[in-house]
Design a protein that fits this description.
Distance between the termini: 130 Å
Order of helices and strands: HHEEEEEEEEEEHEEEEE
Largest sheet: 7 strands, mixed
CATH superfamily of the largest domain: YbbR-like domain
Shape: elongated
CATH topology of the largest domain: RNA Polymerase Alpha Subunit, Chain A, domain 2
Strand content: over 45%
CATH architecture of the largest domain: Beta Complex
Radius of gyration: 35 Å
Number of helices: 3
CATH class of the largest domain: Mainly Beta
Structural class: mainly beta
Oligomer: single chain
Helix content: 10-25%
Number of domains: 2
């Protein structure tokens, strides 16, 4: 009897292990309350909620990758049913903040989430009123300005505090014609720094002003 047991002992152990595994699969997987599941991967836009008035939030990561477990006999989850949210309702100070990504979704099991948190720059917004000046460009020899008018003559600039601090003035650029001429155009006012370069990310309101300039010859005729 002992000889029979020792004969092909390894194969017999393997056979018993396979039998136990098969029994566990058919009995436990099919047991009441046990549901087979599969993984579903979704790319979800990251949005900000709870942003207070007068603030602006900027962050680099715009999409979260979410892996959820869905019952194998259930319907796949639609991407628009899942939201990746950055809740900034508790943030009141400008600066950089690490904010966890929260998933708002139906009753599903979240298997993984990337990124789990996002570094967010919170900036305070401000605005101020600035007069609009005319910047003449071109050869001024032989041509002079007889009259000039900008309407409205001031614009409101709006942006984050750091950007507004760079604005030295608001200009409209008018090319000087080669001969006497009257210009009547709608031109975009441009916020510029002390060197005359445009300051980006600063909004102007209105975004167009009416510019009327009468150019005459240097003799005044």
């Amino acid at each position: 009897m002992l000889t029979l047991l020792r004969n092909n002992f390894g194969l017999k152990v393997l056979a018993v292990a396979l039998a136990v595994a098969a029994w566990a699969y058919f009995h436990l997987a099919a047991a009441p309350g046990t549901t087979a599941r599969f993984d579903q991967t979704l790319a979800v836009p990251i949005v900000v909620t709870g942003l207070k008035n007068g603030f602006q939030a900027n962050f680099a990561d715009k999409v979260a990758t979410v892996v959820i477990q869905v019952p194998r006999n259930g319907q796949p989850v639609k991407p628009d049913q899942v939201q990746a949210v950055l809740d900034v309702s508790d943030l009141t100070e400008p600066g950089y903040h690490n904010v966890p990504v929260k998933i708002v979704a139906p009753d599903v099991a979240i298997k993984s989430l990337s990124p789990a948190s996002v570094t967010l720059a919170l900036d305070k917004l401000a605005d101020r009123t600035v007069p609009v000046a005319i910047d003449y460009a071109g050869d001024k020899r032989g041509i002079v300005v007889d009259s000039a008018n900008v309407s409205p003559d001031a614009t409101t600039i709006r942006g984050v505090v750091g950007d507004l601090a760079k604005v030295d003035g608001v200009r409209v650029q008018v090319p000087i014609p080669s001969k006497p001429e009257t210009i009547d155009e709608m031109i975009r006012p441009m916020p510029v720094d002390a060197h005359g370069a445009e300051v980006p990310d600063v909004q102007t309101s209105p975004n167009l002003v009416r510019v009327r300039v009468r150019f005459v010859g240097a003799s005044g005729k």
